[in-house]
Structure to design on (80 residues):
């Protein structure tokens, strides 16, 4: 799986410095789950990265709790 953002992060053309990143993917979303796993590997060690994998797919019942949790985490002060 390739993508411009992932490639730029891998090559150092972009950095995540200063960003707080919350990712959530369903195990039954193969493309999204694969891209998020790769992004987590690229950003390993980033001080403000949180990744959550949920049992589900791409539907409101699976992601509605995650969007609330993600926003709450992003609005906290501090690096993560």
């Amino acid at each position: 799986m390739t993508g411009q953002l992932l490639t730029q992060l891998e090559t150092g053309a972009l950095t995540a410095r200063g960003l707080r990143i919350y990712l959530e993917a369903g195990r039954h979303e193969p493309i999204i789950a694969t891209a998020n796993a790769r992004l987590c590997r690229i950003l390993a060690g980033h001080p403000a990265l949180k990744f959550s994998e949920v049992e589900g797919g791409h539907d409101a019942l699976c992601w509605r709790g995650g969007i609330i949790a993600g926003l709450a985490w992003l609005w906290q002060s501090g690096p993560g």
Remarks:
- DSSP finds three helices and two strands in the chain.
